[in-house]
């Protein structure tokens, strides 16, 4: 259970994938919101601050890279981790140049996802002291 209540946003056009990720993260004690599209994600990001955004790359209408560009216009410091089933190196490199903090390839092990989330969340002072 995290020491702080972290707000996470899961963005994926596939309802089953969103549900699986959200359940795994809710079980860890995170506050989790979800969006089915880039447009919906942007609306939520304008209204609420998230500690971490998990963003699918392949989505209709507005793909993950386009959504990432718009997220960074709203909040340059947003922590975004890209999700993809395609593992294309060029796309991952482009996402990194645009400000993504990392990526995970689908299908993924839920323990790997939990670790990735923990590694990308901001650490409070107490957590930093314990890690030293």
How would you describe the overall organization of this protein?
- The protein is an alpha/beta fold and 132 residues long.
- It has a single domain (7-131), classed as Response regulator (Rossmann fold, 3-Layer(aba) Sandwich), CATH 3.40.50.
- The chain has six helices and five strands; from the N terminus they run βαβαβαβαβαα.
- A five-stranded parallel beta sheet has the order 2-1-3-4-5, with helices on both faces.
- β1, α1 (15-27) and β2 (31-35) form a beta-alpha-beta unit.
- It is globular, with a radius of gyration of 14 Å.
- Mean pLDDT is 88; it is low at 125-132.
- Pfam families: Response_reg (PF00072).
- It comes from Desulfoscipio geothermicus DSM 3669.
- The modification 4-aspartylphosphate is found at residue 56.
**Structural shape:** globular
Number of helices: 6
The computed structural class is alpha/beta
CATH class: Alpha Beta
Mean pLDDT: 88
Strand order of the largest sheet: 2-1-3-4-5
Strand portion:
15-25%
What is the CATH fold-level name? Rossmann fold
Order of helices and strands: EHEHEHEHEHH
**Most strands sheet:** 5 strands, parallel
Helix content estimate: 40-55%
Q: What is Rg?
A: 14 Å
Sequence stretches where pLDDT stays below 50 over 5 or more residues? 125-132
Number of domains: 1
């Amino acid at each position: 259970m995290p020491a702080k209540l972290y707000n996470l946003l899961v963005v994926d056009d596939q309802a089953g994938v969103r549900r699986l990720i959200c359940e795994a993260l809710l079980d860890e004690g995170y506050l989790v919101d979800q969006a089915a599209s880039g447009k919906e994600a942007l609306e939520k990001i304008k209204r609420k601050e998230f500690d971490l955004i998990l963003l699918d790359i392949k989505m209709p209408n507005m793909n993950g890279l386009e959504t990432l560009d718009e997220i960074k216009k709203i909040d340059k410091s947003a922590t975004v981790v890209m999700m993809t089933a395609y593992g294309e190196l060029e796309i991952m490199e482009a996402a990194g140049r645009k400000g993504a903090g990392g990526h995970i390839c689908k299908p993924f092990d839920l323990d790997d996802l939990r670790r990735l989330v923990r590694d990308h969340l901001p650490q409070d002072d107490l957590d930093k002291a314990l890690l030293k």
